[in-house]
Every structure is written in C-alpha cells, then in structure tokens.
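so my prof wants the structure for this chain in the tokens format not the other one, which i didnt know existed until like an hour ago. anyway here's the sequence
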Amino acid sequence: MTTLPSGFARARRWLRDHPLAFDASLAFCVLIAMICGSFADPGKGGHGPTFGTRTPEAFSVLLMVLAASALVLRRRHSMAVLAVTGGLTATEYIFMDPPAPVVMSTVIALYTVASRTDRPTTWRVGLLTMGILTMAAMVFGSTPWYSQENLGVFAWTGMASAAGDAVRSRRAFVDAIRERAERAERTREEEARRRVAEERLRIARDLHDVVAHHIALVNVQAGVAAHVMDKRPDQAKEALAHVRDASRSALNELRVTVGLLRQSGDPEAPTEPAPGLAVLDELVDTFRNAGLPVEVAGADRGPGLPAAVDLAAYRVIQEALTNVRKHAGAGARAEVSVVRVGTTAEITVLDNGRGSAAGRPGAESTPDGGGHGLLGMRERVTALGGALTAGPRYGGGFRVHAILPLEARTGEPEQPGPAAATGECR
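here's what i got, hopefully its the right format
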C-alpha cells in the first residue's frame, strides 16, 4: 500500500521531465483506442453499435497510424498537428463508410491547442474544427444528419475546446498565485534590507557623533599639552589626563555602538546604557576642561524622556558644542538649555563666537569635509518627528534649536519646514 503511490509519483515525475516520451505513450494509447473502435459497427438498425461485425480497411488503418504519429509532436507544433489530424479525419469521413474513429486524434490535438493558446484563438480554431468535421460527417456519411455519430463529433470537439480552455485558465491562475507569492517574498527581503540599511545609517550617525566630539577634545588638549610642556609641566600633565579621559570615553561609547552589530554567536556586547541627559553635566565638563566656557541655563529635571528622544537630545548638544569649539574662535562662550514645553522637549545651544568666514557656522561646506554635523543632527531629529533650526544669531554667534516630541514616531520623518531650512551645516 505504501509502495504503489510512491511508484505512481516517480512515474509522474519522470513523464513530466520527459514530455516527448509522454506524448509518444499517449499517441500509442490513442492508436489502440482508434483501432479497437474501428471494429465496431454503428448499428444502422437503431439497436446500438455491435463489435466483430466489420473490420477496418487498410486505408483507414493507414490514416489512424498517421494521425496517431502526428500526436507525438503535439506540444512543439500544436497548430500543425491539429491541421494534420483534422485533415486526416475529414478524409476518413469523405472516402470511408462507415468511418473509423480517426476523430479521436483530432480531439486530443484540439485540446492541446486550447490549453496552450489564448481564449480568442481557442474560439476561432474550435468553431472552425467543429464546423468542418461535423459538416463532413453529415454530408458524406450514409447515416442521417441527425444521427448520434454525427452529433457525437460536434460534442467531442466542443468538449475538447472547453476542457483545454479550462486547463489553460487554471494554469494561468496558479502561475499568478505563484508570482504574487514570489513578489511578496521579494518585498519582504527588500523590506529587511531597507531596515538593515536604516539601522546602519543610525549606527553611522552615532559613530560620527562620538568620534567627532572626542577627537576634537583630544586634539585641543594635545595642543595645549604640547604648548605648555616646557614651561608649565603640571598644566601639561592635566591636559594629558583630559586626553586620556576623553579617549577612554570615546572607546567606551564606540564599544557600545559597535556592539549593536554583533551576531547571535558573538560574545555579548557591553551592557552600558546609551548616553542621555542624565550625564549632561559630564559632557559639559569635558568641554570646560577643553577651554570652552559652557553655561547650563536650564536643564529639565522631570521624569525621564523616552530613550530615543533622550539620546537624540544628548547628541544634538554634543554636536553643537563640538561645532562651537571647532568653529566659534577664541574667547567664545556657549549656553545650553533643555526645557520641556507641553508634549515636546526644546534643546537650545547658543554661542557668541566670531569665527572666520570659512569656518563660521552657516558658511558653505569646506573642502575638508565639513558640513555633515548639522545635517546629521537634522536627520536624527526629523526621524523622531521633531524639527531643528540652525543659523547665525542677530548680533553675532550661532544658535541651534531642536524641538523633540516626547512620543517619538517610528514612521517616515517629517520634512523640515521653512524655519528648519535656515542655516547651512557646518
């Protein structure tokens, strides 16, 4: 019981892989059926067909062999095979009485044409074949035109056309379902790739913020140490200590950020929390130690912000102060405020710097690759549904102002309004 279905399945797979062998087997079966049917007498007395009362003529046998042989090529040349079998069937009806059932080959050929072409072609070819063969049987046969043999020709050719069209429609339906499934699979893969790209972009922004901030501090403190090394070694040691602290902080944050890229089989990533406004004082102290006076005019001390908003606020302040230290010039001072207004948090960073035209905030991007800091901040803020404005202040200096919603959105970021477009990235 278990080997019989498996044997049928293997035979079916083999015939599917070898269509010419299947067609040859089908042609042989049709030939046997036509020869057996040629021994039947239609029964002119009205009592039905009788077997063994007649034998087929040699000409009929030749036509049956030719028609069955043509069926071997029914897949490759379906129209030509239909024309050949139809012509042989019409020849049998014209010259032989009673005719041998050569029409069986035409039924198979017509089914093949209907299953492999479109519906209008099936209608045209089917009606033409039905009309020609039925008229030949009615006109040249010795039986009355309304006999069951003549009506059977009409019925069998019509059913062949209908069955072929139904099979073609089912194949098209299955192919459409398969195509939709494949398209949905491709869409899921593209969505996964898009999410991976977005995650990589977010990580790249974090890396930019970390590296730009800490490397700028290391550069400043290293310059101070080199300047006072000979005359004031104590101050040089203090500057080198700040370099060590800044580099350690950079390494720690890089370890946390890059740890997000680890796979499931990799060692566990560090569990330090992402930076936020809770460590704002430590961030400000690093700039103060680098020689930039920073005043915290207002800092929100209410309930904790959402993690994404908290991180974005920290990065905005970090990048803005880094830009002040790099571009505002000597003697610049900065002021930071974080205020919660309703359902939003407003972050403002002001400075009174008067840097050179090439390096001032709001100037065009310089050849050294500047201009990506504010662009990264704006993308980070708008990704959460907020808005960021940056530009020169009246009377000198620069102002960075970010508005972050306390409920960060995960959809598409809003396009910044006209106010958000003021100021170029520095």
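also thought this was worth mentioning. Residues 263-267, 356-370, 410-426 have pLDDT under 50 and may be disordered.
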